[in-house]
Amino acid sequence: MGRSFEELVAEAQDAPVDGWDFSWLDGRASERRPSWGYARLLGDRMAGATAALDIQTGGGEILAGLPRLAPVTVATESWPPNLRLAAARLRERGAAVVADDEEPRLPFRTGSFDLVASRHPVETWWAEIARVLRPGGAYFSQQVGPRSVFELAEFFLGPLDGSGRDPERARDAAEAAGLTVVDLRAEQLRMEFHDVGAVIYFLRKVIWIVPGFTVDRHRARLRDLHELIEAEGPFVAHSSRFLIEARA
């Protein structure tokens, strides 16, 4: 007999959600990763960079895991709990972490970096990225694509418009900012949630899937989801990702 709805809810509500580490979900949820291997490819580019910027670094997990950082490496983040985590992780790697809100303008001089990166940015400020890149420099990013995890979002919210975050729109915006797109790839990736606690943790952490999510506000649908998983097995959704690289 599995754990009760209330037990799973209480455990997931108490779990810390700072940073961008999803190890709490090990054995409870799974997501297939993009075939291109963002961290490996970023590491290759970082090895040849002299000055690099990581926008919206989260808790600094990606940068901290790279074999080598550029001699000058700077990361930005807006959320205070993530700022503390990123500063602690990246200080020993010699990288600076700058508190910055999620609106342009980037607090750096024009032509400061030969590499700008971002993984899953909330929004891409193409004109600002083009401004801070040196001639010949590159923007390298893995982004959330259209209708990502919509099966889960629509379970709570009903039918949604999934026309945003299209890779071709990203290409158009990059080119409008004066950049040349040299790589653009997209994939849909299977996700499975094995219990309602995994869903609660995921929605508390990835806050844009169900904006304003709270257990109290969505308790009835959470109970429905718990009963569905108990009866039919894991809840299946699909994440959408695209990789874009653009040069100045």
From TrEMBL:
Checking InterPro entries in the record gives:
23S_rRNA_MeTrnsfrase_RlmA, Methyltransf_11, SAM-dependent_MTases_sf
Show the GO MF annotations: S-adenosylmethionine-dependent methyltransferase activity
Q: Which residue ranges run through the membrane?
A: none
This protein's record includes keyword Repeat: no
Location of the Methyltransferase type domain: 53-139
Q: Which UniProt keywords apply?
A: Methyltransferase, Transferase
Keyword Transferase in annotation: yes
Give a GO biological-process term: methylation
Q: Report the protein name in the record.
A: SAM-dependent methyltransferase
